[in-house]
Structures are given as structure tokens and as C-alpha cells.
Task: inverse folding
């Protein structure tokens, strides 16, 4: 049963990237899936959700798409994230907030609550909060200061971290995906513990479910070799280069292949460099770059794999692990995000202390030797459904909506749109 019996009008902000764009690209990943699934679940319960997002290939500026009776997708324009500089940040956020307000006026929408995702949306949300007189809940998904601790790739600019500090100070409620993220918000951003709710991400168990491995491999066109799966964006933080070096150390084995799913395709500079290194190491018969895959087709690859490797330096949550386990496929991963909690009930899973190539190679070798000998995890799916099913996650999100709505008398419930 819903925590809230009354139906809400919800403005959801995802100005960084569109939740209906295909995951796996530079700016599309678990956050997109999270927003999409949460909106769909809220819509099922009769709540009305307008998602304000950036335009992308196939969807132009100003395009409004009615996903179903309760969900609308409003493309406010392309955010051109890579071009943002400190001197123009305020101007940029003001333009986004003004665009969202203009579209809300055009749609004749009045909202009970605003839920922003990622720091750019949070900044815009803070500007709209007082203008609309609605409470503002945010979810960061990644934190600039924590990403910079890894010291990989291009560092997040200081103005992002300052922006996140401003959001923390002014927002009504923060949803953290893990206890680790909550601690980081307190330690690095000075957030009040009482202001933060810890709610995990969810997984769609109707989509991600076990099927027979031989059937999955028949569909995916894989042979009888053991299969290791990597799923993720083309980002140095994902540890893909370390994984390749680990595979180099296992060149003496000819009984496995590594599938790489994600990235923007072979034209992505990061992927181009990665493919070149695969060729340089004479591993083209072992390492296969699949590229982006439709999210609805991913369960086939999870079921085809013997295990999924997650060698990341940093994950805010790591939805890939949940999806893999929901398909009955163990994970081998670094201790990031929610991985230790997600995998602790899976005897076949491994959490490794770090992602150095030698360490990854050692544990991959051991996992390969155990392939076919791992016990079936009879109770794992039931545990995952209870903890991470979208129904449970959405119920907890609605509890936070109720909390902020009841906290201040200035926030008044409005009438849902028809």
C-alpha cells in the first residue's frame, strides 16, 4: 500500500541526461535507469510525474512526450555539459531553471514536490524551490569530491564541489544510495545527518531474471568458452584498463573470453584506445567489445556470463551488480558503492581489496576455476526482491516525500492535473 494515499504532482529534474536515452554512453548510466524506473513505479501508483530533461539524438528541444497517462518527458534543450565553465555557471543554471519554469507554465502544471537528480539538476531545483513554493528533494548519484579522491581522468572542477555544497545547505532532503555516500556527504560537505535518508537503488526483477544459460548463449551467439562480463560507461573510474592488464596476465588460459558492454561505440576515443591496446596485446580472440546494448536486452548477456567483473575505483551504488545477481550470475568486484551489502548473501561472489591488475588476475583465475562448481543460490533472488525491488524502494521514497510535505506548513498540496 502507498505511504501516501493522495496522488501527487511531481516535478523530476534530470537536466544532465535523458532517462529514456540508451545507457552506456559517456553521460548515461545507472542514474538514467534509476530515474526511469522510479518514475514508472510512481506512475503505476497514480502519481503524476513531469520529467524535465535535456534533448538528445532523436528528441529535439521542446519536445514533450507522454510516456503514459501519468508520466510526461519534457526536453528543455541540450545541456552541453562539457562546455560549462565557472564564469558562466550561474547564467547557465538560471537559463535551465527559466526554461523549466516556462514549460511548466505552458503545461499548466503545479507541483507538490520536486525531486532533482545530479548536481546540475540540484542547482536548478534550488532556484525553482522558492519560485514554485515546493519542497526540494535531491539525489546526487555521484559526488565530485569523492570522484576526485580517486585521482583518475579529468578532475571535477572546484565549482562543481562548491555547487554541491550549496545544494546540501539549501535542499529540504537528500537521498543517499548507500551509508558510504551518507558518510561522504557529512564528512566532505558538512551535511547534517538528520537531513539525509539512505535508500538503495532498485532493480526491475520482471526484466532481470534467470533463464537457462544455454538458451541465453544461443540468443547472444556465444560459444562454449567461459564468459566474463564487464558492463559500464567508458570512464577511467570503471577500472577497465586494469581489467585488460589482468587479462594480459592470464594469456596462458585459452578457456575464457571477456565481453565489454558499454561506451558510445567504437568511435569513442576512450574505446578506440582500449581496442588498440587489445590488438597490441594480441587479445582480439579473447576480449570482445560489444558496445552499447539496449537495457531491455541486457538480461541475456548477464545470463550468458559465468560471472560479472566490476573493477571500479568508485561507484555511487553499482546497479550492474544488482542486475547481474538478479539473473543468478555472481559478481567479482572491488569494495565500492553498495557491493558488499548486495553480494554478502551470494556465496559465489567475491569482493576484492583493490583493482590492481595482479590482484584482479588472481581472483579472476580462481573464479574461472570454480566455474560450473558454484552452488545454486536458492534464496538469493528472494532476498534481493525484498531489499531492492522497485516497489519497496518507491515506498521508501514516498515516505520521504511525505516527510518533507508534513514538515513545513508553507508547502501546500495542489490538485493533480487531468
Result:
Amino acid at each position: 500500500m502507498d505511504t501516501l494515499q493522495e496522488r501527487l504532482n511531481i516535478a523530476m529534474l534530470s537536466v544532465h541526461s535523458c532517462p529514456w536515452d540508451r545507457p552506456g554512453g559517456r553521460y548515461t548510466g545507472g542514474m538514467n535507469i534509476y530515474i526511469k524506473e522510479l518514475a514508472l513505479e510512481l506512475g503505476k501508483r497514480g502519481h503524476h510525474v513531469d520529467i524535465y530533461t535535456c534533448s538528445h539524438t532523436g528528441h529535439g528541444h521542446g519536445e514533450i512526450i507522454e510516456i503514459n497517462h501519468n508520466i510526461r518527458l519534457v526536453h528543455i534543450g541540450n545541456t552541453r555539459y562539457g562546455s560549462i565553465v565557472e564564469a558562466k555557471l550561474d547564467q547557465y543554471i538560471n537559463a535551465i531553471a527559466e526554461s523549466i519554469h516556462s514549460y511548466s507554465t505552458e503545461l499548466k502544471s503545479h507541483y507538490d514536490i520536486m525531486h532533482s537528480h545530479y548536481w546540475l539538476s540540484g542547482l536548478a531545483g534550488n532556484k525553482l524551490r522558492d519560485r514554485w513554493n515546493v519542497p526540494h528533494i535531491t539525489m546526487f548519484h555521484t559526488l565530485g569530491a569523492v570522484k576526485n579522491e580517486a585521482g583518475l581522468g579529468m578532475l571535477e572542477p572546484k565549482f562543481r564541489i562548491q555547487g554541491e555544497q550549496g545544494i546540501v545547505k539549501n535542499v529540504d532532503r537528500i537521498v543517499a544510495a548507500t551509508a558510504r555516500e551518507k558518510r561522504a556527504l557529512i564528512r566532505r560537505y558538512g551535511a547534517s545527518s538528520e537531513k539525509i535518508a539512505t535508500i538503495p537503488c532498485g532493480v526491475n526483477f520482471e526484466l532481470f531474471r534467470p533463464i537457462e544459460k544455454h538458451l541465453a548463449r544461443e540468443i547472444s551467439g556465444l560459444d562454449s568458452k567461459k564468459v566474463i562480463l564487464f558492463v559500464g560507461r567508458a570512464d577511467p573510474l570503471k577500472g577497465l584498463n586494469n581489467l585488460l592488464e589482468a587479462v594480459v596476465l592470464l594469456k596462458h588460459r585459452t578457456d575464457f573470453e571477456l565481453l565489454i558492454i558499454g561506451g558510445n561505440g567504437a568511435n569513442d576515443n576512450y574505446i578506440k584506445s582500449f581496442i588498440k591496446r587489445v590488438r597490441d596485446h594480441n587479445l582480439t580472440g579473447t576480449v570482445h567489445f560489444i558496445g552499447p546494448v539496449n537495457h531491455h536486452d541486457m538480461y541475456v548477456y548477464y545470463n550468458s556470463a559465468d560471472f560479472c567483473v566490476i573493477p571500479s575505483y568508485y561507484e555511487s551504488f553499482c546497479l550492474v551488480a544488482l542486475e547481474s545477481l538478479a539473473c543468478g550470475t555472481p559478481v567479482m568486484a572491488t569494495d565500492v558503492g553498495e557491493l558488499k551489502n548486495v553480494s554478502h548473501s551470494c556465496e559465489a561472489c567475491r569482493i576484492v581489496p583493490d583493482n590492481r591488475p595482479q590482484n584482479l588476475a588472481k581472483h579472476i583465475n580462481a573464479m574461472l576455476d570454480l566455474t560450473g562448481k558454484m552452488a545454486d543460490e536458492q534464496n538469493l533472488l528472494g532476498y534481493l526482491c525484498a531489499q531492492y525491488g522497485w516497489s519497496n524502494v518507491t515506498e521508501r521514497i514516498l515516505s520521504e516525500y511525505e516527510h518533507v510535505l508534513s514538515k513545513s506548513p508553507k508547502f501546500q498540496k495542489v490538485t493533480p492535473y487531468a
The chain has a mean pLDDT of 88. The domain at 213-380 is CATH 3.40.50.2000 (Rossmann fold). The radius of gyration is 22 Å. DSSP finds 15 helices and 14 strands in the chain.
